[in-house]
């Protein structure tokens, strides 16, 4: 198992955050199940890089369990996730707090750990509002025109905005460094 040596904990959505939703191919035998999809440019490599650098990464996504298993297993990236929270399994979708709480529970985190968590997502109404209401840092990946692009409610306002996944490693490293600078000596 990869050693987790980063203070920052990453929760991430999948569709239009790691996977390009426009590329999804649905299974002919199982309606509603994605059999394959392409990653956003460099997103698969970035996910692998974050895993290798020692970040704890949790998938927090709405959709069907089989779809996510198909896409990430086929691409050899399932092992990059330390927690796996899918709305089909939880029975609720983001922005419901149970999605984020389940990820925390799977990772053995406590309330005090919220200050260490960021949520990366493309949907202001679900990912960003959900993270903000839950009390964790929100990062909006705004590259896709498929969802809301206007902040209609105050809790839709992200803490950070990036325009492409390639901008994430530097931002995450900066946020991790700030956390580690504040942390007491071990």
UniProtKB/TrEMBL annotation:
Domain of life: Bacteria
One Pfam family cited in the UniProt record for this chain: HAD_2
Record's keyword terms, sorted: Hydrolase
GO molecular function, one term: hydrolase activity
Family matches, as NCBIfam families: HAD-SF-IA-v1
This protein's name: HAD family hydrolase
Protein's organism: Eisenbergiella massiliensis
């Amino acid at each position: 198992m990869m050693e987790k040596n980063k203070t920052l904990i990453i929760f991430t959505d999948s569709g239009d955050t790691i996977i390009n939703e426009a590329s999804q191919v649905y299974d002919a035998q199982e309606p509603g199940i994605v059999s394959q999809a392409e990653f956003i440019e460099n997103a698969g490599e970035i996910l692998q890089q974050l895993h290798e650098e020692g970040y704890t990464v949790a998938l927090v996504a709405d959709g069907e369990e089989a779809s996510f298993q198909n896409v990430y297993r086929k691409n050899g990236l399932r092992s990059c996730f330390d927690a796996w929270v899918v709305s089909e399994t939880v029975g609720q979708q983001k922005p419901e707090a149970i999605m984020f709480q389940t990820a925390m529970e799977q990772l053995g985190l406590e309330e005090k750990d919220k200050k260490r968590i960021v949520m990366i997502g493309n949907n202001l109404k679900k990912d960003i509002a959900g993270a903000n209401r839950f009390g964790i840092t929100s990062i909006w990946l705004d590259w896709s025109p498929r969802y809301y692009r206007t902040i209609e409610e105050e809790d839709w306002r992200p803490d950070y905005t990036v325009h492409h996944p390639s901008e994430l490693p530097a931002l995450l490293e900066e946020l991790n460094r700030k956390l580690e600078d504040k942390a007491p000596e071990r």
